[in-house]
Task: structure prediction
Amino acid sequence: MSDLEQFRAETRAWLAENCPEEMRDGDITAENQCWGGRQWEFQSDAQQRWFEAALEKGYTVPTWPKEYGGAGLTADEAKILTEERDRIDARKPLNNFGISMLGPALLAYGTHEQKLQHLGGIARGEIRWCQGYSEPGAGSDLASLKTKCEDKGDHWLINGQKIWTSNADISDWIFCLVRTDFDAPKHKGITFILIDMASEGISVKPIILISGHSPFCETFFDDVKVPKAYGEGNLSVVGEVNRGWDVAKNLLVHERGMLGTMSPLRGAKGPENLGSFAADEVGLDGAGRLDDPSLRQKIAQAEIDDWAYTLTVERMNDEANAGNGLGAKSSMLKYAASELTKKGSELRMDIGGTDAATIGPDGIEYDSLANTWLYNRAYSILGGTTEVQLNIISKRVLELPSA
Result:
């Protein structure tokens, strides 16, 4: 038996012993995941037991070095862990922006002290992070941001506003892009800084969307004092002052890769259940087939598209693990995932017919098909608009000439 075969056998046995049955439903939504943070409360004993078992094993962040709370798994071992977890439809034990975005950026640009302080807290689910990138007037053209950060000697002074700050109202810290040099070219005067959301002068206002469900917020900074360091060597700035765009680009690749690798049609509400949902709503014909040829064709196409997408994700992950990096290809995954997510919710609305057009109680019931359909329109915008992704693909992947 090879080392990887042995690892697979051990992983399968560990999952069988440590992942509670309640965590094997494949039903992964924003509401039932474990997010961690100062305000977090476990939703069930099973969720807590699953998290604690994974934490002890280093499996909340399996590829991170052990000194930062991970398991130090190789890319091949991490792939096996994911495959074995998916095989039993297990939920992730912990999921947040610290793991998927800030963590990789800190591993690439952070000091040893920054990594020790922040990565460990992320791995242990102690701190929930939000992202301070977009501003009014600086969305797709992010580098035009104007949130001002002044050097006051022993601290930074920040004034400005961020928008579409997902979960800012329930997050503990924010990783933020600020302008430290207004005279430099717009990409050159940006700094990447870490800020405690409990700091005096920070206020948050949730944004209510038409779907009734919204993680988005406006975040305001009014004379916010940020220390130069949170302890010896643990600087608040990641990377170099005025060179934050380098860190930002690294993080955006991981963000778009994360959004792109979310399975848009699979899981408990994936294509394998579209047929049964349609059968309940529409009924079957005499031959036992869905009694609507058009819906049959749409469901079959959805499953084909989903499998093609899943195989593309696996291929790109293998390329990245082989050292080729994801780079601009992350935009391909993000674009495809956004389109499939929207099409999936539109198809469910088709299946549900007029009954599906009902908005949930008080407009906030996220499980309503109509609410989900409305919210999923946001995937064309969040993480970089569809138009921006297509431009990146044409220029940096396909290397097409500019118009």
